[in-house]
Amino acid sequence: MADEEKIENIPQIEESPKKGPTLSTSTSSFERNDPHDPNLSLLSTKMFQKISEYLTGELNITEEDYKLLEIMNKATTQKYASYKHLTIDISNQILELNKKYKTLEPYLIQIDQIEDSVSKLEQAAFKLDSYAKRLEAKYKSLEKRQ
Q1: For residue 11, what is the enclosing H or E element?
Q2: Alpha carbons 146 and 139: distance in angstroms, whole number
């Protein structure tokens, strides 16, 4: 008896005259050879065309975005390649300058030593000059006394 109650609660499947069993016989189900409203068919066709155009546009926009990204990536790659060459050139020039500095270093040390000597000579010359001026002043004062 419980089995009979379960069967009665299940919705009955109706038979379609052309295709066999179907769950619904509403006007929204569309069968190929069924007579239908031509206006509805025209509107449906237009709707699908518009959806197709919209989706095509969205895909085209996405494709253009990817093309732009590809162009930007190529430009960035080229820029970084030029930076790489520039840094290699700078590095080579720095190494060359370091080698030249190493070869000139003894001469630079000699120049520093000569500069120190010149400074000492200059100080000695100033001292000698001031001493000579004092002697001259003393000599003149002694000369005036006599």
Answers
A1: none
A2: 11
- Which tens digits make up the pLDDT trace of 29-53? 555 555 678 889 899 999 999 999 9
77: which 2 tokens? 């790659």
Pairing between β-strand 20-22 and β-strand 14-16 as defined by DSSP bridges: antiparallel
Task: Phi first, then psi: give them for residue 14, nearest 5 degrees.
Answer: -90, 155
Q: Name the token pair of 140.
A: 């003149």
**Strand ranges for the chain from DSSP E:** 14-16, 20-22
Distances from the Cα of 56 to the Cαs of 22, 45, 70, in angstroms? 35, 16, 21
- How much is the pTM? 0.45
Tell me if 16 sits within 8 A of 33, measured CB to CB.
no
Q: Report which DSSP code applies to 142.
A: H
β-sheet bridge partners, residue 22: 14
Task: Check if the beta carbon of residue 55 is closer than 8 Å to that of residue 42.
Answer: no
Instruction: Return the CA Rg of the chain.
Output: 52
